[in-house]
Design a protein that fits this description.
With about 325 residues, this protein is mostly helical. It folds into 3 domains: about 100 residues; about 170 residues, hpI Integrase, Chain A; about 40 residues. About 60% of the residues lie in helices and about 5% in strands. It contains 15 helices and 5 strands. It has a 3-stranded antiparallel β-sheet, with no helix packed on it. It has a two-stranded antiparallel ribbon with strand order 4-5. Strand 1 and strand 2 form a beta hairpin. Helix 7 packs antiparallel against helix 9. The longest helix is centred in the C-terminal third of the chain and has 23 residues. The protein is flat and about 65 Å long. About 20% of the residues are buried.
Amino acid sequence: MPSKDRCLSEAVEKFIETKRKKKRSEHTIKGYSWIIGKVSRELREAGYDPHPKRWTEKSVDFLLDDVCSESKPGVTRREFSILNAYLKVNGSSIIEDMDIEWQEDGRINVHWLSLNDARRIEQEANGFERLVVHLELHIGLRRIEVSRLNVSDIQLGYFNILGKGRRGGKWRQNPFDMETNAELAYFFELRDMEIMKAKAKNPAVVISDNLLIYERGGNLHPFKRSTVDNMLKRIQERTGIKFSNHVLRRQFAKELHISGVPITRISELLGHKDEQTTRLYIGIDMDLKADAMNQVAQWRAQQRAQMGLPRNGAFLSEARIVSGQSGI
C-alpha cells in the first residue's frame, strides 16, 4: 500500500501535469508546487490530512483563519484559486462548494509620479533606456509588451502590440505620439551599432526580429526582463526618483486623463477589457471623491458665513485657547 507521502506526491504531480499540458511556464509551475507544498505542511502541522481528497470544511476554515494570522504568512485569495484547481483535478470540490465570500477592497494604493519627475526621467534616460521609457511613458506598454516587441511590429505611425494573457495575449494597435519618430531614429542608430559589432566578430550572425537586442560574443541576444528592469534602476540611481515599469505605464494613463482624453480611449490604449478597470487603474474614482469632499467643504463654509460663524479652523483654535490646550 502506497505511503501517505507518495499518495500526496502523486496528487501534486497529477495537477502539475494538467498545467504542463496547458503550456504553463516552468517558473509558474514551480510557483504552484511551492504553494501546494506550503499549504500541505501547514495542514499537517495543524493535524489535518493534506491529501486533496481528504480536505474538509474544517481544514479549509483553518486556512481561511490563517489569512489573518500574524504568526504565519497566510494563504492569499490568489492561492486559494490555485488550491481549488488542485483539489478539483483530484476529485474534490470542497472549496468551490463552500462558496467562500471574499472581502472587497476598494482602497487605492498607487504610486504616481509628479509631472516634474516624469519629465526629469525622460531627460535623464540615455542610450537604449530612452526607448524603454518612451514606450512605457508615452505609448503605454507593459514591460512584457516592450520585451515582446519586434521590428516588424512597427508600422507607419503605429505599433502592433501583443498584450499579456494566458493564451499568448491579445493584439492591439497604439499610434505613435509626436516624439516617437525621433526616438525610433535615435534607437535604430544604437541597434545598428550592436549589429555591426556582432558582424565584426561573426559575419554569419543571425539578426533577430526582436526590437531590443544586444551583442555578446559575436551573437545578438534579446533583452531579458531583468535587463529592462536594470535600465530603470540606473535611472533611479541617477535621479533619486523611485519608479518602476508599471509606474511609467500608470503615469501614461494618468497624463491622458489630466489632458482630457475620454476614459474609453484611455482604456483602449492600455488594452484593458473594461472601463472600470481603467478607472481604478488611474484613480479616477478617487479624484471624483476628492472633488465631492471639496464641494461639501465649500458648501459648509458658505453656511457658516451666512450664519455669521467663524471658519471651523478658527473656531477650534479659539476653543483650545479657552480650554488652555495647546494641542489635540
